[in-house]
Every structure is written in C-alpha cells, then in structure tokens.
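Quick one, tokens below. Sequence please?
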C-alpha cells in the first residue's frame, strides 16, 4: 500500500484539519486554517497531503527558514496508522526539503508526546541538546 503525495488544495482543508483534530495536534490558541493559509502563501513552506484510495489519510506542514528545515503537524488518520504511512509522510517532507537544498531538519515535539518522540527516533532523528524558546507576537 502506497500513498501519493501532493500539496494541499482548498478541497482538502477540512479533511486535513479533521485529521489534526483527531490526532489532538490542534490547540484552542492556534487556528489551523490560518496556519495552513500562511504556510501556503510562502514559497518556502507548504502542507503535503498523503492520498490513499482517493482519500486524504496523512498530512504534514513542511518548510525552511533559509537555514534549517522543519516539520509541523505531522499526522496520520488514526484509522490508517501503523502501516507505514507516517514514515512515508516524513519521507515525502524530507524529499520536498532536499529538492530545495536543505540539508538539516530541526523539529519540535511536545515533551508529553512520547509516542511521536519514539516514532521520530525510529526514523533516525536524534534529540538535540538545546532549549526551545518561544514568544508570541500577536499579543500585547
Ligand atoms: C506519529 C505518527 C505520525 C506515526 O504514524 P504511523 O503511520 O502510525 O507510523 P508508521 O507506521 O509509519 O511507523 C514507522 C516506524 O515507526 C515506528 N513507530 C511508530 N509509532 C511508534 C511508537 N509510538 N513507538 C515506537 N515506534 C513507533 C513503527 O514501528 C515503524 O517502525 P518500522 O519502520 O521499523 O516498522 C502517528 O502515530 C500520528 O499521527 N500520531 C498523532 C499525531 C502526532 O503525534 N504527530 C507528531 C507531532 S510532533
């Protein structure tokens, strides 16, 4: 069973957000539709969808900042997990970055998401000894 990957289209938006919700990746303070729109507006980022039997079953936001690549919102529809689709989705995102000359990915996994951490380690990702800082620019 293989997935076909392509950039997300308008018609897929609801399916993608449904998968992210089902996978508990969305948070009340982040609007996933706005996040997708913003990623699509830039030449250096997008959302890839994985299609299986004409249905969106996986998605990932991928991009780079001119230095490192990053992945966000990686998710496989819960009904289609554990059959290699997550691995294939990461491979598609890595290929997208390689095509654009990116040679290293830095990605963040929420500390409580131990499953995702084990998944990424299985795919050859290593924990970087860094502290991740964040600051919102949309609040006073
Ligand atoms: C993480 C996620 C994308 C994995 O997708 P998946 O389709 O189930 O994973 P795959 O079947 O492609 O697994 C690929 C490999 O990782 C391993 N793996 C997957 N989940 C694992 C886990 N929880 N612990 C250890 N290994 C795991 C598989 O055994 C497989 O190993 P193999 O290649 O040796 O057979 C999926 O569980 C998901 O959508 N989770 C919810 C969303 C999420 O947490 N996303 C990450 C945000 S940072």
């Amino acid at each position: 069973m293989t997935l076909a990957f392509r950039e997300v289209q308008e018609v897929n938006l609801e399916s993608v957000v449904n998968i992210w919700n089902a996978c508990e990746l969305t948070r009340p303070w982040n609007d996933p539709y706005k996040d997708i729109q913003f990623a699509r507006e830039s030449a250096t980022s997008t959302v890839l969808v994985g299609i299986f039997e004409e249905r969106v079953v996986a998605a990932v936001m991928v991009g780079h900042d001119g230095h490192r690549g990053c992945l966000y919102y990686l998710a496989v529809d819960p009904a289609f997990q554990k059959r290699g689709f997550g691995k294939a989705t990461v491979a598609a995102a890595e290929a997208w970055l390689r095509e654009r000359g990116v040679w290293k990915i830095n990605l963040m996994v929420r500390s409580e998401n131990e499953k995702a951490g084990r998944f990424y380690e299985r795919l050859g990702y290593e924990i970087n000894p860094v502290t991740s800082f964040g600051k919102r620019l949309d609040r006073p």
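The helical segments are 13-22, 32-41, 85-99, 114-122. Strands lie at 4-7, 45-52, 55-64, 69-76.
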